[in-house]
Amino acid sequence: MFLGVGTESDCIFCQIVVGSSPATKIAENDRAIAFMDINPATPGHVLVVPRSHAVDLLDVEPDDLASCARLTQTVAQRAKERLEADGVNLLNCSGAAAGQTVFHFHLHVIVRFRDDVGKDRIGLPWETVPSNLAEVQRIGELLV
Ligand code: AMP
Ligand code: ZN
Fold it and tell me: Is residue 45 annotated as a catalytic residue, yes or no?
């Protein structure tokens, strides 16, 4: 169990994958592993990473991404059942501008606790800007 692949010697998550740095690993599949975030946003915050090093969402192999997604669902199911979570947020930060601080692709599985400020102080949903349909459509056309 928990056999690794990671390749980048200076990458903390590659080191966790191969076991040369400590982590509380909780689940794995052929292409991904899950371990506890060392600075949790809420109790039960888990990170899911591909075994193979990839920098971010644009870099990760599609099959690795799919394996991360599958493992994320397993973790979320366990969190709801075993931690009595009321909900789960998935988060990926790709790029420093998006808040990425560790440059090995990872999905945050953040368990949520309704009406429990002792466990959950996350401020979601985000602040929205007033809708401008023409602008929404213009940007949408750039993404078709
Ligand atoms: P991000 O800012 O999206 O790149 O998230 C990086 C996450 O990795 C943060 O939530 C950190 O708390 C977490 N983290 C950094 N180093 C470790 C580590 N050695 N073990 C577990 N989690 C870590
Ligand atoms: Zn890595």
Answer: no
